[in-house]
Amino acid sequence: MPVYGPLSYSLASNILASKALTRWFTPFANWYANLAGYRKYGLKYDDLLIEERDDVQRAITRLTPRETYDRNFRFKRASQASVLHAPLPKEQWVKPEEDVRYLLPHVIEVVKEDTERQMWDTVAVGRK
Asked: Membrane topology type, per the record (predicted)?
């Protein structure tokens, strides 16, 4: 099953392994994330994942109650800011160090479970 979008294959681990590449790419990555504008509305990167995907929906159900509350609060706050046609005040923006991937580990776990289930469902059983 190919994965597209924010869950697709990434070169981030290779870049983070090299200090020179990390030093070169970090300002560009921060510039791009600020240009995207989701932090101005109080959202984190994983809030942008497409919820219509089955694996993302199942991963959302695995969040702790606190993470679920925080996620819903960010959506309500961003929705209100969108209705007012203005981003949040600068002190309420999500800082780069706060923008962590909280949902990705759950999505990866769900994908691994689906892959394992598919493998076991298609195994050929034969007599010796």
From this structure: Peripheral membrane protein
Q: Please provide residue 52's backbone torsions phi and psi, each rounded to the nearest 5 degrees.
A: -75, -15
Residue located via tokens 């949040």? 88
38-115 CATH choice from 1.10.1090.10, 1.10.10.10, 3.20.20.70, 3.40.190.10: 1.10.1090.10
Closest CA to 102 of 58, 68, 72, 75: 68
Q: Do residues 7 and 115 lie in contact, with contact meaning Cβ atoms separated by under 8 Å?
A: no
| Degrees, nearest 5: CA angle 121-124-125 | 110
What is the C-alpha to C-alpha distance for residues 29 and 22, in angstroms, rounded to an integer? 10
Per-residue model confidence as pLDDT tens digits over 13-49: 888 899 999 999 989 988 998 899 999 999 999 999 9
In the chain, the largest separation of any two C-alpha atoms, in whole Å, equals 70
Q: What is the pLDDT of residue 61?
A: 96
